[in-house]
Specification:
alpha+beta; 5-stranded antiparallel β-sheet
Length: 135
């Protein structure tokens, strides 16, 4: 009887120990994520230069620039207006259309609208995370 009782107690103890191993808690010196430091926040602040670079990288990845090989002025990316909260970056396509990128200075979230002057038509073109296009 004592052997059965000891085996049962041992099984319960092992069960409790093994259950504790699977909780996903970090131990032994591993640190939990914390709020970003001022240096990290400053490093992630969007400037006019980073907004232009990120949008330019996006445009070169997304659009076919072969039409601009002989005529570089046919397609370009340039800065637009700036507000307290966002930068506007403008992509001009060889087709004559414009894509306006509105880069949130605090988060890097970038919403896009496309404008086709020949049709006088503007529509939402989605959103990107600018940090996906920065080194």
């Amino acid at each position: 009887m004592k052997k059965r009782f000891a085996a049962l107690v041992l099984a319960l103890v092992m069960s409790a120990v093994l259950h504790g191993c699977g909780t996903g808690r970090q131990t032994s010196g591993a640190s939990l994520p914390s709020e970003p430091s001022d240096a990290q926040t400053a490093a992630r602040t969007i400037t006019e230069e980073t907004a232009l670079a990120g949008v330019s990288n996006y445009c070169h990845d997304t659009y076919d620039w072969s039409a601009a090989e002989d005529r570089p002025d046919a397609m370009y990316v340039t800065m637009g207006e700036e507000t307290a909260a966002e930068y506007q970056v403008i992509f001009h396509s060889y087709t004559g259309s414009f894509v306006y990128f509105y880069v949130d200075k605090a988060t890097g979230t970038t919403r896009m609208t496309e404008y086709v002057p020949a049709l006088d038509r503007e529509e939402d073109a989605g959103a990107i995370d600018l940090y996906d296009y920065l080194p």
